[in-house]
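Please predict the structure of the following assembly.
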Amino acid sequence: MAHAHADHHDDHDHHGPDKGIMRWIKTTNHKDLGTLYLFFAFTMFFIGGMMSLVIRAELFQPGLQFVHPEFFNQMTTMHALVMIFGGVMPGFVGLANWMVPMQVGCSDLALPRINNWGFWLLPAAFTLLLSTLFLPGGAPAGGWTMYPPLVLQTGDAFPFLIFAVHLMGISSITGAINIVVTILNMRAPGMTLLKMPLFVWTWLITAYLLIAVMPVLAGAVTMLLTDKYFATSFFTASGGGDPVMFQHIFWFFGHPEVYIMILPAFGIVSTIIPTFARKRLFGYDSMVYATASIAFLSFIVWAHHMFTVGMPLAAELFFMFATMLIAVPTGVKVFNWVATMWRGSMTFETPMLFAIAFVFLFTIGGFSGLMLALTPVDFLYHDTYFVVAHFHYVLVPGAVFSIIAAVYYWIPKWTGRMYNESLGKLHFWLSAIFINVTFFPQHFAGLAGMQRRVPDYAVQFLDFNVWSSVGAFVFFFAQFIFIYNMLACCYGWGGRKRDLTDRVWEGATGLEWTVPSPAPYHTFEDQPQIGDDGEPVKVKATKTAKAH
Amino acid sequence: MLKRLQAAVMGSAVLGLLNTTAASAYLDTSNGWNLPTGATDIGAEVFSLHMWMFWICTVIGIGVFGTMMYSIIRHRKSLGAKSASFHHSTAVEIVWTALPFAILIAIAIPAAGTLIKMEDTRDADITIKVTGYQWMWEYEYLGEDVRFFSRLKQDANEARQLKSGIDVHQVENYLVDVDRPLMIPVGKKVRFLITSNDVIHAWWVSDLTVKKDAIPGYINEAWTNAKVPGTYRGVCAELCGRDHGFMPIVVEAVPQDEFDAWLAEQKGSSSDTADVAGTPKTVTVDESAATEVAAAGSPAVAADDAAEGAEEAADAEAPAETDLDALMASGETVYTRNCAACHQAAGTGLPPNFPSLVGSAVVTGDADAQVMQILKGKGMMPPFANLSDADIAAVVTYTRNSWGNDSGVVQPADVAALR
Amino acid sequence: MATAAPNKDRYFVPAPSAWPFMMTIGLAILVLGVSNYLESKSFGTIPMLAGLALVIYIVFRWFGGVISESERGEYGKQVDMTYRWSMGWFIFSEVMFFGAFFGALFYARTLSLPWLSGAGEKIETNLQIWPGFEAVWPSNGPAALGGDFQTIPAFDVPLINTLILLTSGVTITLSHHALKEDKRLPAILWMWATVALGVLFLYFQVEEYIHAYRDLNLTMGSGIYGSTFFMLTGFHGMHVTLGTIMLIVIALRLMKGHFKPDSHFGYEGVAWYWHFVDVVWLGLFVVVYWL
Ligand code: HEA
Ligand code: HEA
Ligand code: CUA
Ligand SMILES: [Cu+2]
């Protein structure tokens, strides 16, 4: 990715990039920033992955072998924060940076300088957050959900946690505004809303969710801050507050947040499956409506994370019904994907393999989600490894697989070089098998009574945990194949040639496939015209080194 | 090691068919890899809801994945498949929207029914107040004047220390056994009033189909009705800090007459006078004194007043002066139970998180300041105000006169004065 | 820098810029300082001030650049739309931020306080833990945190403040109409009038806080009432401060001859923001002071 557009440095008439490190610091180019986002996400995935290995190593056997309970809790907390706010979200924003302008046919994102700011806030936020590991008292250890009063027992790390969340929030909001505005304001003439590619649609709705809920999270953590340092009592009963109030505010953010992590994935899968099935996406309109319904419903289900906090019966019933309802639009999506494959003409390149695995494994995660939605049974599932299994199924073979699939799918367009298909397949099979080895047994552990967020467990859970740990280690190391494969594309290792056609994939559709591979530094200076059939009427992409 | 791995591989391979881990299952009514069927009627209902949902998902899954596998196998380009051109069908889409909807309603109705029953805590035969502490539980039989703490059993507590060198497989009921279990009568509706003293905990016993969060300052209600006598185990289910994984719950359901006898015996022991040994019994005395005062005391701002009242009551009973040896002896017990986890048996702590007490400025400095720190906690150190004056005096004295420290004696009266 | 001549048909793509990165550095230093101040109170103040100064400096330089681009006429119609959409969504995010605090107030009044006094299924909470506590508003909770306090009556200074803000909404609109008719002097004067009203509002607000702390014993520590009162009015006050600064910039720009009668989004964006601050206040007046 890094040197993808090295050839276009002669693009000087229209302020090409600076040289060296300053290029990355000062860049306002959506492709550069997309690349930065993706590298950042990549780094965070590995830091978060390493933390999960500490967790899995300690849980390999009962008894404490490697770390203190306090440090274990720090790992759990940081693992989740790093993966969610540092891995998945920036990963999706990076993809949006790269692809949204290319897919809607415009020159760049709407607010390029804000885009740069949004990116650079992330390294700052995570430097703050990760530095707490070296503070006396260590990193935050109250879980990523930061429930008071426990989180108020955090030591020096506490304000770092809060401010890191603030900075991430600003970053997400600026990024989201940028994407919304680009989509609403800068589409190529003729591209009506219902002609937009699905990745663009899902991101539009995701961005809306982000703008709506990130400020709420900022508010919640601000209340934590004032409760700790300024004597307020939002979350203290003796002053008339309620610790549970935090949970309501948090999950009002938190549940839409989990859809923020899956809607772009839906968009990616809806792009990849038609390409490799060589068949138009089934039920485009219903896909759009389903996405919108999921987003809407996501605002009224938050308390399903809190069934055990002692809510009034009516609230428990309401949140149970609303939560179950989400299965309907999500089901529509799954069925549409299957119908797209039905009687297609399929090939199974790596992106397609990951997309298919996504459909399988996300659905399994969705099923367990639906089981969790049944309030009376959730009383037994809640805070056990059954929940851990549920959300890793939707997050790892869900969100993360979709990012991996997207990178495989678009990297030829970014770098102009094809990745190594055999290594891709090897990576896929190792990932797909060992992700199940890791997380499937956790369902059983949870049902049989193993609670979450513990460094040690009763000996009867040994088998499940051995499996889980072995799976986690193999999965983690399998990702190095992926890194190698992608870096090889970026840097042209192993004599990889830039000999790809514009379209790259036989069945690919969309504007991004009408420009050269690699895509020029500024894609569409002059916007293409979209015809009634959704295809571009004429394409005037900036050709390399063409003066204006 | 290798052998265990093999066993795990073998064991898990047959997991779906055979019940391999049942022998060691701590949930009485679980086969070791599925939810417990429960020792209560509600538990059976919940179990069947769980299985129903599971089978619905399985059937839908078979349909979806089956169709998908079929196209993957048959509709591939390498087999010469040509792609069809359909991309829309209103009829099909209506069906696959309506059908899941109907299925969900069919399962939501019985689920709502069960939920309504679970939330009905009226007409209980007996009420027990459960209070979570970092990291133990306190049980109080309301109106019975019986009250005690329950924590992780000592052998497990030793084995679970980092690199303890103890094989945890040799510890019976590792991590799921306590020093004093909660007793309940079989076949009676037992209501639990669940609350917390510090952070949020959750009281969870799967076999009894109860999991409720313990929220400081609020009381949640739950109930159970165990149909079968037995020992039912659970754990704290809400992250509550460092030792969240080490605050188990054990409930023994016994026939009514056995229960009555047990309860009577507890009341007897409650009237013992305080000794300084720092055993749970001492705590019982102090705490039940607190109840009495609270019950009789001013209604307004109860918690604080009651706590103060309790102190006075406890003071009246506590011996005026205790000699160094007695303090040191009971101090060691208190220390091992409460402090050693962080500050280690030899007082060396685990820097940088947990400071060493050997020659520490606080321990060698002003005694009152140290007592205050233990009463109120500081940073990651939890408050220990739940300990009796005698215990605190003992443990402070112990830390001030062990491991080479030599900085004087603290008496229970000193602690009481500082509360 | 952009060498290409301004082309109104093409979307303006800015040159690389170091400001955003510097802004991040400034913010990082700022929060590092605040963190240090809060936890150990040791060396926090210096980085705090340095970070803040850096941030303010950069905001002025960055926006200064944007203003000159705008004045050079580099922004076409589409860029104008971009700013409109962006400002709209930004204000929406602010609404959600305030929503969290309004939500907390609502929760405390309709749920947690009644529960503490034994409403609904929480009867035992009252009997066992907080006997005798009755939910009334205002409340500092069953333990009467912070001690007895008095509240600020709605139909006193807050009412005056309401009128001030409402009037400022009128003056800014008058200014806007004047600008649209290209009557510069009234536009400038009405804008300064708006600024003056903003400052007046802030003055009263500060007086009110001093009064609350000194005479009424109403503090942030006054239980849930003090918490919600100060957080809501405080964050609102911060927004008024920011809005007033932006109004001053706009007034100065008007005096420098910026903006055209038919194109002045910089102006309008600030006006939107001011109206938003106004509306939040109305909400505050009703639910914080009055009800
Ligand atoms: C990408 C993230 C993601 C996604 C998409 C989901 C999707 C869903 N989640 Fe999940 N969830 C999380 C991430 C996610 N979740 C996380 C991170 C947590 C834990 C947080 C924490 O505590 O730390 C969590 C926890 C969580 C809980 C709380 C558990 C507890 O703590 O006790 C619940 C309870 O209702 C729940 C439910 C659901 C449901 C109903 C869906 C639905 O959207 C799923 C819908 C999909 C399907 C159902 C499959 C496809 C549908 C069909 C094939 C149609 C037909 C099917 C039927 C009619 C059966 N989730
Ligand atoms: C997106 C989120 C995400 C991801 C990816 C993961 C990934 C993993 N998680 Fe995580 N986990 C959470 C979110 C996530 N988790 C959350 C929210 C919690 C709850 C925390 C709490 O209780 O507070 C949790 C908790 C949690 C626990 C429970 C801890 C406890 O309760 O104490 C465990 C235990 O096994 C675990 C294990 C793992 C493992 C082995 C992986 C492995 O899959 C890790 C290996 C993954 C990688 C190495 C990344 C690979 C990705 C790429 C290669 C993508 C490339 C990227 C680009 C091209 C940009 N996780
Ligand atoms: Cu107590 Cu977890
Ligand atoms: Cu959710």
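The mean pLDDT of chain A is 91. Chain A has one domain: 2-537.
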